[in-house]
Amino acid sequence: MTAVQTSAEQSGVTTGQDQYPAGAQVVVRDEEWLVRSSMPTEDDGTRIEVVGVSEFVRDQEAVFFSGLDRIELLDPRETTLVMDDSPNYRRSRLFLEAVLRRTALPQSERRLALADSFLMDSLPYQRRPAELALSGANLRPRLLIADVVGLGKTLEIGLTLAELIRRGRGERILVVTPQHVLEQFQHELWTRFAIPLVRLDSVGIERIQREIPAGRNPFTSFKRVIVSIDTLKNTAQYQHHLEQIRWDAVVIDESHNLINRGSLRNQLARTLAPRTDALILASATPHNGDAKSFAELIGLLDPVAIRDPENYRAADIEHLFIRRTKISPEVREQMKGQWADRGPSHSVHCPATPAEEKIFEELAAVWLPGEGGTSVSSVPLFPYTLLKSFLSSHAALRATVSARIKTLEKKDDPQGTAAELVALQRLSELAADLTEADSAKFAALVRQLREEIGVGPGSDERVVVFSERVQTLEWLAEVLPAALGFKGRAARDCVRIMHGGLSDEQQMACVEEFGLADTPVRVLVTGDVASEGVNLHRQCHQLVHYDVPWSLIRIEQRNGRIDRYGQARPPEFRALILTSEVEGAKDDTVVAERLLEREDQAHRSLGTAEAVTGLYRAEAEEKSLIQDLLRGRTVDESLDARRSGADGEDAGLDDFLADFFGPVGEEAAPAEPTESGGSAAAPGTEASGGRAAASPVLPRLFDSTAQFLDDALREVYPDARELLDLERDQQSGLLSFRPPTELVHRLKALPSDYLREQRLRERMLVTFNRRLAEHSLQRARESSTSSWPEISLLTDLHPVVEWLTDKVLVGMGRQEAPMITANVAEPIYLVQGVYSNKLGRPTVVKWMGVTRQGAIDDTMVSLLHRCGVGPSMANKGHYRDSKQLREALPNVLRWAEEFLAERRDAWEAPLREPIAEYKRKLATWHQPTLDEGRDRQRLADLADSLLTTGRPLLRVLAVLVPDPDHKDNDGPPLVHLGPPPLSPPAVWWPRPAATR
Question: Boundaries of each Helicase C-terminal domain copy (predicted)?
């Protein structure tokens, strides 16, 4: 393989960086290395990540800086043309395919390249976030994915990251999530997309810091990391480390938590946003009803998108924001058969027991009297806190009463609190001796679980029970097992409890156990910590609201845990409604039951309930509702007044937010680049005006990755059956082998639990059979020992495929290119040409066939097929003497550069236009709270850095040579590239500098 980098002085253009494309070989410290990625730095030249090729450093990973190390850059004119004696020119074809695979797609390639290769259903709506991120409408891949609960945001994020990786823009990835979904997110990205993330929870970071030298940045130890936002928000501890790292892509899940300026989460986001190229935010509830807060969230993606944070429309940010609901046309049509329709929300009426009626009487008479009455509490909202505690359980009521007594006893006004203290003592006495026998809700819960749902010994049925109060959860976890008929060890194992007071490891363990079919867990009692982001639908379609949150958003979030993409059975919801015969009692029929009905109506008519009140936050909805109840309004009056702006305080807000929470993102996908864009089409393919799957994006010499891997194994390990203990099941497509040392070294990036539980260092099971991989994943969910599948799907991103690709690349000697006897009339040199920007990323990639006279064809893959290069071709062993072929290299390279230079402007046009538009917006940008001059210059420099700079990097890959035994009437006609140019190129290829 060969590469050249022309210095700034030689090209006459100040580039400010060196070009080291992925897949190129370089010589550093007298050893050969394969470039994995490169990025310019401010002080030390270009930072290149490499893996060792020569014997002494083979498969060792390293990082070099062109400003600090002597790096030998190879001159393509000095390429050695070598004989390939492998059967059917297998070695040459593998080498060309490996170069194609290792070359990053140019940034002008807008179409998706890998969408059909992963372990996910082919649903176009789930591709659209990736299409929008890569559309060029935004300078960088920056996007807020605001699809409602359950549509598959994790899958959409995974696909977007995969496409960035294929473009060389996803080497360093940071994913930030709530602590209870860390493992779930990590699991999905590996099992579905073969993207390994190292989980750095609080324990993981502590372990790394013990293993690395003091003061070293823990985030430099791994390239792709997933970490809890609760861990990272400790900016005092991690701020310095984060400021020293630049990421290719950052993902922040549940990003609505970032909005409040001055909060630790907000500070974290403001630290990460300018230090990453791609930024993906995800939230089903991204808006808190405040235009300025939402503008700040969008400002993390693009500071220039919104000029006036108090006055903007959906059209201003449509390039940064995508949102669909389950009833959106594209989702509804594509989801048929993939997501069972939800059933109704059943209200289970629970007539209060005599002991509970006494408490209702006390609350109605003393704490929440009717019209004209006065509450004993001096805090208007506290009586409703007391009521909600009681509607949850007697255990929660006792806790609330006890806490209030302690608060009042500390006050210096005994006379002012005396009446309330007396009333609290009466409530305490009424609740003191209550047990499960006195709880109408508990009796109804047991009946529902045993008789209606079928939970009990000998049954596999599962259910999730929600409550807002920790005391209720703890009480239920204690008394439920016996009431359901479980005894002995089964009683200890059948119920799991989850709430925000547990550590992240404990929360993840609860979710994993509940999701594994073979575990004894039957009931998960959980607080609303599980209402955001957690998948509980794998083995469960039954949900019970033990108490009902006074927020439509929270109800919908809870229901969304089992009502989501992939749910095979219709989700069923039940709510326990405590009723009372006491006059004036505010039982669950007053608020909870009505909220359940309104949430169900909104979900079926609008696809989401979060916009009903216009408040967009569960806490704000509950506070507003209680205030309206204090004013004497009903639930319906409160909801309708808020939405219509009847109070005057939010008039006009409805129309503004309707744009964002209506059909945002439902328009057609961005138009594809046209053929005039040159490199907007996949390198070596025709441009297409259709959707992403209209034509092949990736240039491929082999028909499939499976065929490539099969031939690569034969070439690299001809004795694989013995050397790797390779076993192949022809019927199922399963490959089983013992990974060699160099592959084991690469596997360290995989999740540690996965490595350990599946014993991957000893044996790997992989397949291209999607059904087999899906079956293995499903079988893992039915296991009680591990949620990790034993068989993984081989995708282009899988470490096994990447390892074999690199093995093929280094199988060709330094600066060597093979000669291939083909059906050509004259020698055709296969040349790769790459233009890059200041960030070292390719902007134009061309694969060319060039003759000595200057005739050029820039569709190398189709050219190879026309010339008969394929698995059935014969290797006749001609052209052992390459002297004459090599003497023509300088002229061939001059022709290639002239061809690229003449067409560069046309190819660059799709890139220049959005950059020019961005700079026009930047010129009128006004942000008085920031250092405008500094920030405007920084953003302008960023825009300029995306433009092509300098001269192209050229590499000679192979030479197609005529068959001397060919006869005119023998076989298909010989391939000609057409007439050569009228005059030789004016550009002379200078000898590059060998060091830096």
Answer: 441-616
